[in-house]
Structures are given as structure tokens and as C-alpha cells.
């Protein structure tokens, strides 16, 4: 029932998971009655692991991410994130338009309790990490879609959480920009050693990025199948190995969707 | 198209030499950073300021022409003798009234009496209306209890408050302030409420994941996000302050109160001086416009421009 954000004490040895989702169910009350959205989901994300959650619309993948982020409570089951409050990135950049790019990051630092005199330098460092040095004073509307998502990523990293949740963060970008951001994300993931739980409906994206792809069935969402992706990084979205696995997963996903047309 | 891309790649050193490239940098395709720099350069919105000459032609010239046209029509009507002189004074007669008042040194006094009352009343309304609006916006019980009354009060003409205010407080400045507050507080509070209501839920969710909850959420997320609506409320609050004040000054005149613009108008009517009435009406109008142009519009433009909400044509 509980969502715990216990920060792991420095002295204790590393925990064996960055997120532990155990038998989580979620139902919503709708005019049509109780609707079960997630049914008995069990899923671990190991420290430093990159997992993508894949599913058709209505599979509750965003709902699951909200539960892990602590924005909502599960109806049953438990979620543990030992690394503290997870960072969350949305499909929309969700940057605050009244602040500059740099100040958006500084707000995250401030809310985390970073002392004032350290914030500026840390914000500049994070902007450098997403290759946006020199954009500190830019207003949100002065940035392109890809740059906004990179600032949003920097702001999420500013939370200094060991777990980064991403809710289709690149879905609204054009293909070339998305490609570039896949590269950036893989690079940053390697550099920071973060655990990432990445939600998408794009099979190729899932295979391009992840070490493990988890397919959710729809209505209610259940873990349908998992794939380990052993293709060595760095990968390209057009690599034949990526394409091959994508074809297999897409077949499975289509099967899941077809089942819903039959009744 | 392709050649543009190449040139950009070559001329942007920033993308190709990231200072923090670690040994484990996994980007194998060295041109990916260059590609990124190119995308950034292509997509970035360029903003600049309009040159002064264009501002003059586009913003200043049209109202000047409109005013000149009104003056011409007015003078033509006077020449055509559409009505008696005492009903429609000529622009010249009104101007003579202005220079008389200026020569006697009373003109600025009239204006200051009203403007100081209006601004002080408005500031009081601001101090009361802001927490009230926040309370209504954020506390469900308070909203259910007084929300409808507050928005209903906005449509109540503030003149209606003058008689009870005179009876409760007498013919003095506090009566004026009471009328101003009753007119302006609901506007300011309602502006803030609608500003808060229009805060995109995404900002609240983003704020919560960053740890901005409770009062910190209100201060760091809700208030700045609601600022445009709040400013619109302030603007309307000023208009209501000014209108309420004029109503109060016209109805409740007393020698102790000093002559503000409302009293000037009423005096003009009593002595049957139409130029004085016109003068008072113009001054009331000009002050209202001036405060808006000098204080609220620049403030609003600044906020909207900072957020990229001001579309330049």
C-alpha cells in the first residue's frame, strides 16, 4: 500500500534494486464503475539499469510511472525507491516559462536544499552535461523543442536522484532530433550510472535505448513479456540488430492489441 | 539544404568539442554533436527589439490621428451650431479652462487630490485582495463559501456603496477608501483566482516531483504561474478603484474633502460651466489612461514577453 522514499543511509551497502514494484494494482472509479488499470505488476529495476516499459495506449504505463514517482498511490501492492524521490521527465518539457533555462535548474537545486552560492555553478555544469553551455540565460520560448527537453533532462538530473523516470520524453520531437537525444541520453546514462525507467510506445526507441524491454498488456496492464537487449551500446536506431528485435517485439505487441478487438 | 547543414557543422566549434567529453563517451558518430549544434542553431528563435521609428509609426501615430479627428469633428459641430453654446462648448473654450486652472495653479491640485486617493485606495485593495484571492483559490471551503459572492460583487456598481458608506463613515476620506475597496478588492481577488485556476496541471505535477509542495509549491510554482491572470486582475482593480472614487467624489462633496476631479465635475454642473465639466471629464479619462499606460501595460508586457506569450506582428 505504501510508497516509500527512504533515502538509503550512506553507510549501508548498495541495495540490489533502484526500484522495486511488487504486486502493484491500480483501479480508478469511473462512471462505468471500478476500472482496473494495472493488475499485479511486479518489476525490479537494478541499480544502473536501463529499462523501457512498452505498451499500446491504455496499458497504464504512464499510470505506473506516476505511482513510482509518488504522484499517486497504488490500490494494492508496494513500491520502493531506495534512492530517494525519483526524478521524472514528461512528454512535454514542463519547464517553467517565468524562469530562464538556468534558473529552472536552480529551482530544482534549491528545492533539494543546495546552498545558494553553489547553485549557479552546479546549474552550469548540468547544462554542460546536456551540451547546452551558454544557454543559462535563455528563456524557454527561445529554445527549440530538442533543447527544451535537454534542459528538462538537466533539471531532472539536478534532483540528484538515483532513479530517473521518463514518460515518453521524446515522443513530440522530430525523428532527427529524437535520434540525437537518444545518443545524449545513452551517453549521460553511461556517465552518471543512473537507473532509468523509460516509458514509450515506440518499439524501436525501446530497443535502441534499453538493456531490458518490458511489454505491458492493455486493460488491465500486466507484464506480458520481457526481453534482454544484448546488442552492444552504442547502438543506432537503424542498426539491423535493433530492427530485428523490434520486428519480434512489434509482432508480440500487435498480438496484444488484436486480443482486444476479438471481444 | 545539404550544403547549409555542412557549413553549420563546420562553423560551430561548440558542438564538436564538448569540454566534458569523458573517456567513456559513447557517441561513436563524431558528427552527432555537430548535428546537434546544427539543429540548435536552426531551431533557435531569434528575438530582437523593434526600432524606435517603427514604434512611433505603428503605436503613436494612430491614436494621435484619432484624437485629431475627434477634435476636428467636434469643432465642425460647434461651427455648424448643432446645439446651444452652453451645451456644447468649443475645444477652444475648454482649452481656455485648462490654461486658467493651470495659471491659477489649481490644475495639478485637482489631479493630485484624486490620484493620491485612488492610488492609496488601490494599494490597500491590493494588500487585502491578494491574500483573499489566494485563500479562495486554494482552500476549497473558502471558495465554496465566498467564491460566488466575490464574483457577484464584481458586477455590483460601486456607486451603490456610496450612500451606505456616507451613513457609516460620514463625509470624509475613509468613506472614499471604503468605496474604492469595495470596488477593487473583488476584482483583484477574482483575477488571482482565475490566474490560479488556469495554471497548467503539468506545472503543478512538475513542481511536486521537484519537491515543491504546500507553501513552497504556492510560492515557487502557483504564484509565478498565476502572475499573468493576477496582473489582469490588478489592471481591472485599478479601473474599478478609479471609477468607484469618481462616483464617490461626485456624489459626496463637502468643503472639507478638497476638490478632486469628481468634485470639479460636480462644481462645473452646479455653476453651469460646461467647459469645466468637459475639463473634468477629460482629466478623469486621461488619468485613467495614463496610469494604465505608465504602470500596468509595461508591467504586463514585460511579464508576457518574458514568457514568450507576446506575439509580435
UniProtKB/TrEMBL annotation, chain A:
Gene3D superfamilies: P-loop containing nucleotide triphosphate hydrolases. InterPro entries: AAA+_ATPase, ABC_transporter-like_ATP-bd, ABC_transporter-like_CS, ABC_transporter_ATP-bind, P-loop_NTPase. Keywords: ATP-binding, Nucleotide-binding, Transport. Residues 19-245 form the ABC transporter domain. Signal peptide: none annotated. It comes from the Bacteria. GO terms for molecular function: ATP binding; ATP hydrolysis activity. This is Sulfate ABC transporter ATP-binding protein.
UniProtKB/TrEMBL annotation, chain B:
It is found in: Cell membrane. SUPFAM superfamilies: MetI-like. PROSITE patterns: ABC_TM1. Keywords: Cell membrane, Membrane, Transmembrane, Transmembrane helix, Transport. Its main location: membrane. It holds the Pfam family BPD_transp_1. CDD domains: TM_PBP2. GO terms for cellular component: plasma membrane. Coiled coil: none annotated. GO terms for biological process: transmembrane transport. The keyword Chloroplast does not apply. The keyword Cell membrane applies. Residues 1-12 have a biased composition (Basic and acidic residues). The chain crosses the membrane at residues 60-80, 118-137, 149-169, 175-196, 217-234, 276-297. It is a multi-pass membrane protein. Residues 111-295 form the ABC transmembrane type-1 domain. Residues 1-30 are annotated as: Disordered. Belongs to the binding-protein-dependent transport system permease family. This is Sulfate ABC transporter permease. It comes from Streptomyces scopuliridis RB72.
Amino acid at each position: 500500500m505504501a510508497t516509500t522514499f527512504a533515502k538509503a543511509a550512506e553507510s549501508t551497502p548498495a541495495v540490489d534494486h533502484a526500484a522495486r514494484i511488487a504486486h502493484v494494482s491500480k483501479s480508478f472509479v469511473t462512471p462505468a464503475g471500478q476500472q482496473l488499470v494495472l493488475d499485479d505488476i511486479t518489476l525490479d529495476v537494478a541499480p544502473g539499469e536501463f529499462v523501457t516499459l512498452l505498451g499500446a495506449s491504455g496499458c497504464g504505463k504512464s499510470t505506473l510511472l506516476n505511482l513510482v514517482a509518488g504522484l499517486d498511490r497504488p490500490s494494492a501492492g508496494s513500491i520502493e525507491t531506495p534512492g530517494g524521490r525519483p526524478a521524472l521527465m514528461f512528454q512535454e518539457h514542463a519547464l517553467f516559462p517565468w524562469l530562464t533555462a538556468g534558473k529552472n535548474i536552480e529551482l530544482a537545486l534549491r528545492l533539494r536544499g543546495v546552498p545558494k552560492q553553489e547553485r549557479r555553478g552546479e546549474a552550469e555544469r548540468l547544462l554542460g552535461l546536456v551540451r547546452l553551455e551558454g544557454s543559462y540565460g535563455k528563456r524557454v520560448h527561445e529554445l527549440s523543442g530538442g533543447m527544451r527537453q535537454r534542459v528538462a533532462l538537466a533539471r531532472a538530473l539536478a534532483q540528484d536522484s538515483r532513479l530517473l523516470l521518463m514518460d515518453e520524453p521524446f515522443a513530440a520531437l522530430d525523428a532527427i532530433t529524437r535520434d540525437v537525444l537518444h545518443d545524449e541520453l545513452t551517453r549521460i546514462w553511461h556517465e552518471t550510472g543512473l537507473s532509468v525507467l523509460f516509458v514509450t510506445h515506440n518499439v524501436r526507441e525501446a530497443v535502441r535505448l534499453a538493456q531490458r524491454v518490458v511489454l505491458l498488456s492493455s486493460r488491465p496492464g500486466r507484464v506480458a513479456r520481457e526481453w534482454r537487449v544484448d546488442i552492444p551500446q552504442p547502438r543506432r536506431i537503424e542498426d539491423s540488430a535493433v530492427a530485428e528485435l523490434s520486428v519480434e517485439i512489434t509482432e508480440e505487441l500487435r498480438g496484444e492489441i488484436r486480443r482486444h478487438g476479438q471481444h | 539544404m545539404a550544403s547549409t547543414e555542412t557549413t553549420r557543422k563546420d562553423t560551430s566549434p561548440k558542438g564538436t568539442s564538448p569540454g566534458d567529453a569523458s573517456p567513456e563517451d559513447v557517441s561513436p558518430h563524431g558528427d552527432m554533436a555537430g548535428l546537434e549544434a546544427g539543429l540548435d542553431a536552426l531551431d533557435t528563435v531569434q528575438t530582437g527589439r523593434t526600432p524606435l521609428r517603427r514604434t512611433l509609426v505603428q503605436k503613436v501615430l494612430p491614436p494621435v490621428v484619432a484624437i485629431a479627428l475627434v477634435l476636428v469633428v467636434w469643432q465642425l459641430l460647434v461651427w455648424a451650431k448643432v446645439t446651444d453654446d452652453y451645451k456644447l462648448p468649443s475645444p477652444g473654450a475648454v482649452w481656455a479652462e485648462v490654461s486658467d486652472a493651470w495659471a491659477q495653479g489649481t490644475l495639478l491640485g485637482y489631479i493630485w487630490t484624486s490620484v493620491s486617493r485612488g492610488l492609496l485606495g488601490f494599494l490597500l485593495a491590493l494588500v487585502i485582495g491578494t491574500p483573499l484571492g489566494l485563500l479562495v483559490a486554494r482552500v476549497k471551503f473558502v471558495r465554496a463559501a465566498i467564491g460566488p459572492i466575490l464574483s457577484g460583487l464584481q458586477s455590483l456598481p460601486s456607486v451603490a456603496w456610496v450612500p451606505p458608506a456616507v451613513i457609516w463613515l460620514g463625509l470624509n476620506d475613509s468613506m472614499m477608501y471604503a468605496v474604492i475597496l469595495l470596488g477593487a478588492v473583488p476584482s483583484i481577488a477574482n483575477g488571482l483566482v482565475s490566474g490560479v485556476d488556469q495554471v497548467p496541471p503539468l506545472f503543478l505535477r512538475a513542481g511536486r516531483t521537484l519537491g515543491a509542495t504546500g507553501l513552497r509549491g504556492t510560492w515557487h510554482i502557483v504564484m509565478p504561474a498565476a502572475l499573468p491572470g493576477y496582473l489582469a486582475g490588478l489592471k481591472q482593480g485599478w479601473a474599478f478603484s478609479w471609477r468607484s472614487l469618481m462616483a464617490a467624489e461626485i456624489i459626496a462633496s463637502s468643503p472639507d474633502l478638497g476638490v478632486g476631479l469628481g468634485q470639479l465635475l460636480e462644481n462645473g454642473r452646479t455653476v453651469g460651466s460646461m467647459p469645466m465639466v468637459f475639463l473634468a471629464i477629460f482629466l478623469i479619462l486621461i488619468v485613467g489612461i495614463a496610469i494604465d499606460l505608465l504602470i500596468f501595460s509595461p508591467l504586463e508586457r514585460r511579464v508576457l514577453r518574458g514568457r514568450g506569450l507576446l506575439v509580435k506582428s
